[in-house]
Amino acid sequence: CISPFARVSGCDVQVPLVQGGTCTYANFDYAASAPALASVTDRISELLPFYASVHRGAGYASRISTTSYEDSRESVSRFVGADEDQVVVFTRNTTDSINLLAGAVPGDVVVLDIEHHANLLPWKNTRVVEAADSVSETVWRIAVELERAPAALLAITGASNVTGEVLPIAELADLAHACGARIFVDGAQLVPHRRVDLAELGVDYLAFSGHKLYAPFGAGVLVGRRDWLDEAEPYLAGGGAVREVALDHTEWACAPARHEAGSPNVLGVAAIAAACDTLASHDAEAAARHEELLCAQLVEGLRDIYGVEILRLWDDSTDCVGIVTFGIEGFEPGEIAAYLSAEHGIGVRDGRFCAHPLLARVGLPGGAVRASLGLGSSSADVDRLLAALRQLVADGPSWSYAKADGAWSP
Length: 410
Ligand code: PMP
Description:
The protein has 12 helices and 17 strands. The protein has a 7-stranded mixed β-sheet with strand order 4-10-9-8-7-5-6, with helices on both faces. It has a 4-stranded antiparallel β-sheet with strand order 13-14-17-16, with helices on one face. The protein has a two-stranded antiparallel sheet with strand order 1-2. It has helices at residues 38-47, 60-79, 94-102, 135-148, 169-178, 198-201, 226-231, 266-280, 284-303, 333-344, 356-361, 379-395; strands spanning 14-16, 22-24, 26-27, 86-91, 109-112, 126-129, 153-157, 182-186, 205-209, 220-225, 242-246, 249-252, 308-311, 323-328, 346-347, 349-351, 368-372. Strand 1 and strand 2 (22-24) form a beta hairpin. Helix 1 (38-47) packs antiparallel against helix 8 (266-280), helix 2 crosses helix 8 and helix 9 packs parallel to helix 12 (379-395). It is globular, with a radius of gyration of 22 Å. The protein starts with 13 loop residues before the first strand and ends in a 15-residue tail after the last helix. It is an alpha/beta fold. It folds into 2 domains: 14-30 and 284-395, Alpha-Beta Complex (Aspartate Aminotransferase, domain 1); 39-280, 3-Layer(aba) Sandwich (Aspartate Aminotransferase, domain 2), CATH 3.40.640. 4'-deoxy-4'-aminopyridoxal-5'-phosphate is lined by residues 93-95, 116, 118-119, 157, 161, 186, 188-189, 209, 354. This is Aminotransferase class V-fold PLP-dependent enzyme. Pfam families: Aminotran_5. InterPro entries: Aminotrans_V_dom, Aminotrans_V_PyrdxlP_BS, PyrdxlP-dep_Trfase, PyrdxlP-dep_Trfase_major, PyrdxlP-dep_Trfase_small. Residues 27-385 form the Aminotransferase class V domain.
């Protein structure tokens, strides 16, 4: 795919249409999982012949795999601006990273009510703050809660997976630190869209997933301050996480090995590192500006369609990544998504996006439709989506989603 920023796979995939024939797939589902970058595919192909278990092998393939695995840690660390006090732990995904950190936090965790379930459910001793109608009021409410009683951690999303809205992370980091707490950022949606520099922002812990960062499924990252991670119970008990084992005593290793028991996902980790290296070499601001223009085109077009309501928590001046969630009066979200796929070859997502409390609070318990952008998105794709939605509103679907029993299979 010709994107001004990177070669992304899957942009020229042909998909079947319900009326017969095929068309080029238009992907508006980057927020769920992003297609692999060409550099990621190349890195995996290079490494595949040397597929071997890491660390304790003296064979050539094992040494290549070990070097790749540990170099990948360096790539990730550089990409997020981690300092020497911060350690990169490889996990399966963001959810895994948060569950790992949840076992290491020595106290209460303050969260907002708009979070993805992954940043709500794993925490113990949670104190939930209700987001307000403006960003500044929301920040103020968080400050009040942090001052009210000691908390160990403020756990906050970098960018909402429902609205794309971005929180002022540096300000929140200062606030948390002033109250004696640390800050964790759920970067699942932010990292693929913005350069996140931990040192610059003052962030203590960050998690993200390979599959949303143009790498395949199965590998994720937790990066953060070493002390809690060194003191925590090992996330997984087993080989690789220990220094010494006797039948009546175990001496655990420090982080990251402490939390990475078992044979690691060498290829998945190399893929994340390749994505980080590629994204680090790009002009992130230019990519963000490009995405902002596409997003504005999408929002403007949607606002011109009768019955469309765009879901935003805060006003239009709020910084946003390329995620636009909406509903259309008279249509079920599932019906809209199925229609776009079946009749126009357009992939969006519908539902409640693993953020049930947020959807309930904005009065959309039945869910909404989410269109999300990424490096392979184009203005032509946005036009295609808008034209399809205009046609839907004008004519209704030319086949019945309900009759298809809620499903359409190619
Ligand atoms: N946090 C946010 C904001 C997300 O969007 C997601 C994925 N939808 C997650 C966490 C969980 O990511 P994963 O499924 O890769 O663990």
